[in-house]
Each structure stands twice: as C-alpha cells, then as structure tokens.
Design goal:
With 369 residues, the protein is α/β, with parallel strands linked by helices. It folds into 2 domains: 164 residues, ATPase, nucleotide binding domain (Nucleotidyltransferase, domain 5, 2-Layer Sandwich), CATH 3.30.420; 183 residues, 2-Layer Sandwich (Nucleotidyltransferase, domain 5), CATH 3.30.420. Helices cover 38% and strands 19% of the residues. Strand 7 and strand 8 form a beta hairpin. Helix 1 crosses helix 2. The protein is globular and about 65 Å long. The two termini are 27 Å apart.
C-alpha cells in the first residue's frame, strides 16, 4: 500500500481464516526522494510529459518489488508461501465526477508480478468506476468483515493523506454500512509542516498544539462544496492541494496568521470534518466507539481534537482491536487479493455508488504452476 500522504510503501504479510487476521510481518520503507518528487509532480501538475508518466509506472513496480523482497527477507517467509500480492498502486489522479469518470493508480501489476515472481492482483478501482461508482472507498468491506460489533455502534476512521470513515451499526448488515471520504486527513498539515518548519510532518501534533484556531479562516475552509456533498463521495489531491491552501498561505504571507496557528486550524479542520460524518447518519448512535487507523492515529494532538469533537464516543486506535493502525490499509489490500482469487466482491455498491457488485481487480501471473 502507498497512499496519498506519499510517506512510503507499506507491506503486510497476512494469513486470513474465517474472520480473523494473522499479521505475520509488517514492513515499511520510504520512497527514494527523487521518486517521491516525481510522484508528487505527476499527482499535482496540470500537464505531465508522457515519457515521465510511462516510466514512473514501471519505476514504481520496481520499488514495490524491492519492498516485497525486503519484507520477505526480514520475515524469513519464503516466496513460495505467498499466494498473491494485493497491489493498490499509487493514486495520481482520482476523477470520479464529470462526463467520463476515471481514476489512475501507477505501478504496473504485470511488471511487479514478473519481477517478484509472485502473482499480483491490482487495479481494484477501475471496474467500480466503470459501473458508475466512485472507485472508493474500498476498505469498508474489510471494516465490515473484521470490525463489526455485536455490542456497540462503531465509526471506523482512517486518517491518511485523506480521511475516510465507515459507519458500522451493531449487528450491521452489509446494506447498513455507510462509508465515504470526509476530506483532508494529514495531507494539508504535512504540506504546512514541510514548507514552513522544514519537517516531513508535525510529530505528535506538537506544533499545532502550540497554535490557536483562526475561526474566520476555518469557516472559509469549511465552506468548500465538498463538505456538503452527500455520500457516496470520494476525493484526493485534485481538490485538497495548493489551490485549497491558497487562502491560508496568503494569510501567512501577509503576517495575518502564524504558521503555528495555520497548523492548529488545519488539525481542527480534519477533526471537525471527520466528526461531521454523523450528519449523514440518521440512526442515533448507542454505546459509540471510534476506531482510528492510519498515520493520524499516531498524532496525539489530532486524536485529542477528535475526542473534543466527539465527546459522546470512546476514541481509540485500531491497535486496541487487534489491527495495527499503521498496517491496516496494507492488510486490507492483502485481503482484497485473497477475495479476488476466491471470487468474493470487495466493494459495497451503496458506499461507492456502483450499479452492481462484481469481483474487483486484475490478476497478473508471476508463478508458473
């Protein structure tokens, strides 16, 4: 898994039995700096040279193979024990709206299969888009299978570059699940930390903690049309990037706001838009648990902001529920590879907006049997 935050590649080696997940190994590695810059350029530029785009598609396959090989070496798991690799790929454009909805994840599945010598299941989103869906979120099927409770209502929150939620009422049936992207997670905070503090991210939210919310600016940011769209909905860097940050950066440049206050305001933006998920949930929550995963689960201050905005809930990391927060999305796509092989649909059409349910993915052979 490599997500919108561009913080690296996560590899999870898993065994799935019934409704249990056995995480055998988790390995994470950063992108080489030049590769990260190239991905960011492709993800944010209006136009991209075709040579750069095509070469990056194969360069990422090589990087994924190196990460898989390192994970296997570190874990002492043999290549022959791995049934398949579930490859999300690196999203560089997500365009679920408009005349021809589309999405693109770079990282060639066939190339990875050939290099690694292991079957690969990839391109999980295209078929859902073709059926009128958003192509996202997909992780709710994993949440539904492994985190539904018989005793409490749960909101599953993943805070990566973009934040998304899955609503699981107790004893949930699949058609009761509600899921969507709420908006920015860590992405905007990371951008400010990098630009004004020369840090890859605000560790534990300590800089944001020292700032003050700029309420007029927060109101301006919250006025974005995306936050009023009903689900199903999904988003990415196409919306929450430089243009979205422009009002904030103009205030910093003019001296009207300190960068610390900017980070505090963005932390509140993430927390409030996650909390606003309940405006789309008509059923009153009973004995509510909020289960958080992704990089945001490690941001102590952001977790505090969530608790203040959701005082009626118990907020905890998914680690407390047996699923390491940093590994959850990688675990989910390992599960999706298995589901594809077993012809199990992995999307919930009412959460993505697809017209029907099918097995998602493309199988690339890396083994000869």
């Amino acid at each position: 898994m490599s997500g919108t935050s561009l913080d690296g590649i996560d590899v999870a080696a898993c065994r799935f039995e019934d409704k249990t997940v056995d995480l055998l190994e988790f390995y994470s590695t950063e992108w080489p700096p030049d590769t990260r810059r190239a991905i960011l350029n492709v993800a944010t530029a209006t136009t991209v040279p075709m040579d750069d785009l095509v070469r990056l598609h194969f360069e990422l396959a090589n990087e994924y193979a190196l990460a898989v090989n390192a994970a296997l070496e570190h874990s002492k798991i043999s290549r022959e024990e791995i049934r398949a690799i579930g490859l999300h790929g690196q999203t560089v454009r997500h365009l679920p709206y408009g005349r021809i909805p589309a999405t693109m994840q770079l990282g060639s599945g066939p190339a990875l299969a050939a290099i690694a010598g292991i079957d690969v299941v990839s391109d999980f989103r295209s078929a859902d888009i073709a059926l009128g869906g958003q192509g996202a979120p997909l992780v709710p099927m994993f949440d539904y299978r492994y985190l539904t409770s018989d005793s409490s209502d749960r909101l599953i929150v993943n805070i990566g570059g973009i934040a998304n939620v899955t609503w699981l009422p107790q004893h949930a049936a699949s058609d009761e699940v509600i899921a969507f992207d709420t908006g920015p997670g860590n992405m905007l905070m990371d951008a400010i930390a990098q630009k004004y503090f020369e840090m890859p991210f605000d560790r534990n939210g300590e800089i944001a903690r020292s700032g003050t919310i700029d309420e007029p600016l927060l109101s301006e940011l919250l006025s974005n049309d995306y936050f009023r769209l009903p689900p199903p909905k999904s988003t990415g860097r196409e919306l929450f990037s430089d243009r979205f940050l422009a009002p904030l950066e103009r205030k910093i440049a003019s001296g009207a706001i300190d960068p610390r206050d900017a980070l505090r305001t963005l932390a509140e933006l993430s927390a409030r838009t996650i909390a606003s998920a309940f405006s789309w949930i008509t059923r009153r929550a009973i004995d509510l648990e909020i289960i958080v995963s992704g990089g945001g689960a490690n941001n102590d201050f952001l977790m505090e902001c969530l608790r203040k905005n959701l005082p009626q809930a118990r907020v905890a990391s998914s680690d407390a529920y047996g699923i390491p927060s940093k590994a959850k999305e990688a675990i989910a796509f390992a599960f999706f590879a298995q589901a594809f092989i077993q012809n199990i649909p992995i999307h919930l059409p009412h959460t993505t907006g697809a017209r029907s349910q099918i097995a998602l993915g493309v199988w690339s052979k890396g083994k000869i049997f």
